[in-house]
Amino acid sequence: MVEVFRVSPEVAEALRSAPPVVALETTLVTHGLPHPDGLAAAAELEAEVRGTGAIPATIGLLDGQVVVGLTAAEIERLAASPAVSKVNLSNLAACLAGGLPGSTTVAASLFAAHRLGIRVFATGGIGGVHRESAETGDVSSDLTALARFPVAVVCAGAKAVLDLPKTVEALETFGVPVFGWQTDRFPAFYRRDGGLPVDRRFDALPDLGRAVATHLGLGLGTGVVIGNPIAPEHEMPAELYVRSLTQALHDAVAQGIRGRDVTPFLLERLRELTDGRSVFSNRALGTSDLLPFWGADWPDRTTQHFARRKRSCSSASSERRG
Fold first, then answer.
1. Which residues of 206-229 are buried (b: 16+ CB within 10 A; e: fewer)?
2. Are strands 152-155 and 102-104 parallel, antiparallel or unpaired?
3. Per-residue pLDDT for 129 more than 90?
4. CB within 8 A of 241, min separation 6: which ones?
5. How confident is the model at residue 282 (pLDDT cuts 50, 70, 90)?
6. What pLDDT, on a 0 to 100 scale, did the predictor assign at position 280?
7. Cα-to-chain-centroid distance, residue 123
8. Do 46 and 56 form a contact (C-beta atoms < 8 A)?
9. What are the backbone angles phi and psi of residue 62, rounded to the nearest 5°?
């Protein structure tokens, strides 16, 4: 039987020897940005991670396996696949069983990261409660993944196309804290202020690290969202943002777009309606998410905290069995 997970030698060695490992998704490459912008963004993200001494672990599906630590050639292969699936928790098993190529969403990436002991994940924005969810019931599995997998997610808030108040309310219901990095406000992807407060603001990395490690160490079983807003110089102008988003949402309803097709459709329409301005902001999101964090040692301390806790629990269990 083929092993479900294939971990690159570099990532496997990092997990053994404790350099910080940062998980990265691949939906950005295949569905979030037009080709070849997605490939360029993936390379930039990995370079940013490496530049701070951490190891990137880009995740995707190839040949019936979840590959953690895709090579550049494998990412390019994924991007070039004509029918690449957008993989979340509901279709992960079917894609693996069918040997289909797949790009991992936040939800699927969190699952893989958690299974392998990777405690930090970076993405442009999480999914959440969609607008018109009262009629459609459309809620991203990213939220349920955050409620199930204790991983710290660094992002520019939730995707702007969502119902942000309901998304933040759902995070609170699931017990997922929302921390703000040098901001009091929950970011809205292309905009720095989504109009909602975060649970707690942090202006110093040691304080943020302690809060993350404490939450994960409590064993509550839920993740943490760290909102790191897009840089001011890359923020989409408010008037363009509101006008384009309103039109994109109208078009999605008019064309009957549903389920996992909604977000890619809206992002593509925003690209068209903003004459590519949304792509510029979207690519900038990746680096803004990464730059403040990986030069610090808090991800490593969090990983070490869990390793010590796991060893302690294992020792205690062995003693009880003995």
1. eebbbbbbebbeeeeebbbbbbbb
2. unpaired
3. yes
4. 160, 190, 191
5. low
6. 53
7. 4
8. yes
9. -145, 135
> In the chain, how long is the greatest CA-to-CA distance?
67
Distance (Å, rounded) from C-alpha 241 to C-alpha 277? 10
CA distance 295 to 54: 8
Catalytic pick from 74, 86, 159, 235? 159
Helix ranges restricted to H, 52-163: 72-80, 92-97, 106-116, 133-136, 141-148
**Cα gap 306→224, rounded to integer Å:** 15
pTM of the predicted model as reported, rounded to 2 decimal places:
0.85
39 or 109, which is more confident: 109
Catalytic residue status for 233: no
Which of 65-69, 193-197, 258-262, 302-306 is predicted least confidently? 302-306
Which of 146 and 205 is assigned the larger pLDDT?
A: 146
Q: Is there a contact between 299 and 20 (Cβ–Cβ < 8 Å)?
A: yes
Single-letter amino acid code for the residue at 288: S
Q: Which two tokens stand for residue 315?
A: 């020792």
CATH architecture of 5-312: 3-Layer(aba) Sandwich (3.40)
Backbone angles phi, psi at 224, to 5 degrees: -135, 135
Token pair for 71? 């090579």
Task: Identify which of 78, 10, 9, 5 has the alpha carbon closest to the alpha carbon of residue 50.
Answer: 10
Active-site residue 310, yes or no? Answer: no
Q: Residues 159-195, buried b or exposed e (16+ Cβ, 10 A)?
A: bbbbbbebbbebbeeeebbbbbbebebbbbbbbbebe
Type of residue at 267: L
- Token pair for residue 127? 């999914």
Closest to 26 in 3D by CA, of 117, 95, 94: 95
Among candidate residues 25, 46, 48, 235, the one labeled active-site is 25
